[in-house]
Amino acid sequence: MHKYPLIRCDRSLWVPLCISPFNPNIHLSIYLFVDLQRRDHRRSDEERLLAYLFDGYNVAARPVLNSNSTVQVQIQFSLMHIQELVTLGASRDYEWRDERLTWNTSAFNLNEIVIEAKNIWVPEFAVINGADEIYGHYREFRAIITSEGSVHWEPGGVFKTMCSIDITYFPFDEQTCALVFGAWSYHTTKMNMTNSNRTVNLDSYEPNGEWEIGSSNVVRDEFYYDCCPSERFSNVAFLIHMKRRYTFYVMNVILPSMVTSILLLSIFYCPPGQKVQIGVVVLLSFRIFLLNVTDSIPKTSDHIPLLGEYIPSHNGRLNDVND
Fold first, then answer.
1. In angstroms, rounded to a whole number, what is the distance separating the alpha carbons of residues 178 and 318?
2. Which residues pair with 113 in a beta bridge?
3. What is the DSSP letter of 7?
4. Domain segments of the chain: what residues?
5. How far is the C-alpha of 27 from the C-alpha of 40, rounded, in Å?
6. How would you label 41-72 residue by residue, b for 16+ Cβ within 10 Å and e otherwise?
7. Is 123 helix (H, G, I), strand (E, B) or coil?
8. What gap in Å lies between CA 196 and CA 150, rounded to an integer?
């Protein structure tokens, strides 16, 4: 005969439930507390930290405790490669502070944690002058969060931008292309976007066979719509100054053109019977050569390259000689 009645426990449940024989309606929490302590002991520090941080976390809410505060977002652009003049492969570095994602390092033995960006609030950004799409799918990239709430996120991708080019001095031309990122819905009182550096980061850049990076600079700007002058929107423009590598065009366009011009001048020193034969050969060479040059020159009607004017003028002179 026990001095105290035994406690009857039902272990078939997902959480073991212990009932006092004195009153079946009174649930004892001793066994449940011990079992939860044992389950918590099996969890890693990251699991405990994630459970602590995201208990009631809402990704749609801005990462500030005071709704009147502004989220300061710093952006840096890292150029990786150039596929075409208007197609750039790059990554963007965003940094901001999420006041809801802070913790005591001594309680979790962690100074930072890496999580999927889809689980946290991320700044809204759009490619303002994008030629393909304004928004992209970048939430699969992971973010790094420190114990102070600082968030570092580096989404990458291929960006197509609209770039106005001047090919007057093709192939010795230089171009400047801009890639503009900005907020589409948040105005500056809600989210303020600024640049962290004055130049584009080229540490991971792979040289391109056609373009050489000359210099770069970053310009931050604000704009507003006529209807709402008090609501200003911020954007950051990354300008890249590029110089065309002209070796290929010199060897395949300019030198053949000079050789053909020399042949054209040689017609004046030929006997009258050979002028027609040499003139026809040079004329056909110019026509075929003009087709190749047309494929090499960027197609735009805003500026006519001097090389494109030089070859047709030689065709006209050649026709005059044959006549």
1. 43
2. 145
3. P
4. 1-42, 71-244, 247-322
5. 21
6. eeeeeeebbbeebeeeeeeeebbbeeeeeebe
7. coil
8. 15
Distance CA 238, CA 223 (A): 17
Residue 36 gets the label, from left (phi > 0), alpha (psi -120 to 50) or beta, of alpha
Query: 14-18, 50-54, 139-143, 188-192: which has the minimum mean pLDDT?
Result: 14-18
Beta strands in the chain (DSSP E): 8-10, 17-19, 27-28, 71-84, 87-97, 112-116, 126-127, 142-146, 150-153, 156-160, 174-182, 191-195, 211-225, 228-244
Looking up tokens 């060897």 gives: 251
Domain range 71-244, CATH architecture: Distorted Sandwich (2.70)
* Per-residue pLDDT tens over the stretch 57-116: 999 999 999 989 999 999 999 999 887 767 777 888 899 999 999 999 999 999 999 999
**Phi, psi of 229, rounded to the nearest 5 degrees:** -65, -20
Alpha carbons 75 and 236: distance in angstroms, whole number: 8
- Helix or strand or coil: residue 19? strand
In order, the DSSP letters of 171-238 are TS-EEEEEEEEE-SS--TTTEEEEES-SS-B-TTPPP-SSEEEEEEEEEEEEEEETTEEEEEEEEEEE
pTM score, whole prediction:
0.74
Tokens of 119: 């689980």
The CA-based dihedral angle spanning residues 98, 100, 102, 103, taken in that order and rounded to the nearest 10 degrees:
-160
Residue 52 tokens, joined: 């602590």
